[in-house]
Amino acid sequence: MRNMKKYLPAVALAVALMGCDSTPKYVELESGLKFRKLVKGDTTKAQPTDVMNVVMTHVEGDSVLYDSGSDPGYFVNPSVGLPPNLQEAFLLCSKGDSVQIEMPYTEYATMTGRPVGAADSSKVVTWNIKVREIENEQVVIDRLVGEQLEKDKVKINEYLVNNNLEATETEEGVSVVTLKKGNGKYPASGDKVGVNYVLRLLDGTIIDTSYEELAKENGLYNPNRDYAPYSFTLGNREVIQGWDVAIPNVDQGGKARLLIPSKLGYGSRNTGGPIPPNSVLVFDVEVVELNK
């Protein structure tokens, strides 16, 4: 269950057939889980390179322990992204199926890290699952990344309009606003560059900076850090892709504002820090060093 957290969130499912006389009986799987198929879809089953998009709830009695949310669905590769007991159950599912999985609460608690009390040994958790899609994982990733890029471009354009800024857009989707021209010498792949920067979110929140005084002013100062231009080799994947794409558009001594879509920043990852998933990044940069 912990491994499942890396996939995207999903939508809730209410199963209407629970009280009907025609509801199929549970069968016990080799893992010990109980499984039944309430609605049969087609015959499309997941291959090792496929992901499922499902919507689900986990229920114990009248309590909803987990509700996967509304959009865009919960994606999981059942061949590698689940513990063995759930893997067995999910691989029995086809596209369009509505199924239920039943397990002891103690087993559920072990998977999810929930506490277990003395009265919990008799409790049962029911998973209500609707399989909406089964598709090749890379196809799904490419589609989701493309959809997010279009959303990010809308946000970037709104930011430019609201702040009365003109930008040039790279082929990859980074918008570059020139704030100050430098000496006309532009970095190229393989060059060693030193860049001062301020990182903000679209709402103006400052996340990080190479300027010591600005860090102090915004409660970001770290006494163990060396506040100086960030040095790296351009095109060597030492920085986020957005920098490798955009810095060649800023000449030595020049300043620019870079609006970087999440695809070229930190993507959909939850970094555990102040940058939410799918965040457009706003960098004010100055190329202060350039060694060809």
From TrEMBL:
PANTHER family assigned to the protein according to its UniProt record, in alphabetical order: 39 KDA FK506-BINDING NUCLEAR PROTEIN, FKBP-TYPE PEPTIDYL-PROLYL CIS-TRANS ISOMERASE FKPA
Enzyme class, UniProt record, top EC level: isomerase
Family in the record: Belongs to the FKBP-type PPIase family.
InterPro entries associated with the record: PPIase_dom_sf, PPIase_FKBP_dom
Keywords, in A-Z order: Isomerase, Rotamase
Name under which the protein is recorded: Peptidyl-prolyl cis-trans isomerase
A Pfam family hit: FKBP_C
